[in-house]
Specification:
about 350 residues; alpha/beta; Rossmann fold; 2 domains; five-stranded parallel sheet; 15 helices; elongated; binds zinc ion
């Protein structure tokens, strides 16, 4: 199903000192303009590259060529890129480690978990604090990244507070969050804030073309302008043709475009579809999909009921006992709510396309 194979995420600038995502250059300059605060909170819309920016900033702090930091060439910059710098610790939930392709590489012989945790657990924070008290390996200080910081549960956040308040000399902390309101106010208030905006649409599309996407605009629309999320969808096999076809298939009760996909992704796609149908029913324009050839939307009441049912599924059915059956029933639910008349032009066009 996958159109591309995701590689483990790389940290830091390349050998020429170029950032891993082109739109981070400006944010890096913005961070430099801030005072050398010991704790920085990188926030802004999801999918902008918070972790990449954190890696870049950490690399700049640890770089052995301060005039060009991050130079990309010194020993320290190489170690950051290889994620083996003794003075950089990146703490992520186990589930994020899996997403990044980092599982099995670090934290020694941790056994794979049946259900990877979405939390930064208190043991991880305690281990990180122990690490902050060890002597710097290369003598330029240390950088601790927590990504995303809002994945810290209350115990984890409380464990971090003293270190945020009085960090050991030479330690700098980088917290990321697409949703800073989810952080404890006591954590938020101890950090200087730096907002990372999404790149402009043309820059995002140009970058996605460099990554091999032929027609990135529909994927960018699906991803609300986030190039990283658009790339994630592409890696799951979505492209412009899939996106144009998907709503018509759903209206016709065809679950094959969703077969084999993770339930949270299926629910996300259907929630975006119901959003667009509601927009159309209210006389507005769709946001996530292109609505040429769609059957007319159902009445608002049945769309609202469908949306509520999807939200209930999102809360309860992340790991259903029978995902294939659930996907079938979600599509049946969608078709019933949308309810195109039998033999409608859309249904006929799906059939004739086969
Ligand atoms: Zn360097």
């Amino acid at each position: 199903m996958s159109a591309r194979t995701a590689e483990p995420m790389r940290l830091g600038a390349d050998e020429q000192g170029r950032p891993p995502l082109p739109w981070l250059a400006e944010a890096l300059a913005g961070a430099r303009a801030l005072q050398r605060s010991h704790a920085l909170l990188l926030h802004g819309p999801a999918g902008g590259g918070h972790l990449q920016l954190a890696g870049l900033l950490a690399q700049a702090w640890l770089c052995e060529d301060p005039a060009h930091a991050p130079c990309g060439r010194c020993g320290s910059c190489h170690l950051v890129r290889a994620r083996s710098h003794p003075d950089l610790l990146v703490v992520v939930p186990q589930a994020v480690r899996v997403q990044l392709g980092w599982q099995g590489e670090e934290e020694g012989a941790t056994k794979p978990e049946a259900k990877p945790s979405r939390d930064i657990r208190v043991e991880q924070v305690r281990q990180a604090i122990d690490w902050t008290h060890q002597t710097s390996g290369r003598g330029r200080g240390k950088a601790l990244v927590l990504h995303p910081a809002d994945a810290m549960n209350t115990a984890s956040a409380n464990a971090l507070l003293k270190t945020l308040e009085e960090p050991p000399a030479g330690l700098r902390l980088l917290l990321t969050s697409a949703d800073p309101e989810r952080l404890l106010p006591t954590v938020r208030s101890r950090c200087q804030k730096l907002r990372l905006a999404l790149p402009a649409a043309d820059q995002a599309a140009a970058w996605l073309r460099e990554q091999g996407l032929a027609e990135p605009e529909p994927l960018l629309a699906l991803a609300s302008g986030s190039p990283l999320e658009a790339l994630g969808w592409a890696e799951e096999g979505l492209d412009a043709a899939w996106l144009a076809d998907f709503p018509i298939r759903v209206a016709a009760g065809d679950a094959t475009p969703l077969a084999g996909r993770a339930i949270p992704r299926v629910v996300d796609l259907l929630l975006k579809l119901v959003h667009d149908l509601m927009a159309r029913a209210a006389g507005g324009a769709p946001r996530f999909f292109t609505a040429s050839r769609w059957p007319a939307p159902a009445d608002m009441a049945s769309l609202v009921a469908w949306q509520k049912a999807l939200l209930r599924t999102a809360r309860h059915d992340e790991h259903p006992w029978n995902a294939a059956l659930l996907i079938e029933s979600l599509v049946t639910q969608a078709t019933a709510a949308w309810a195109p008349a039998s033999g409608s032009p859309a249904k006929a066009s799906v059939h004739s396309a086969r």
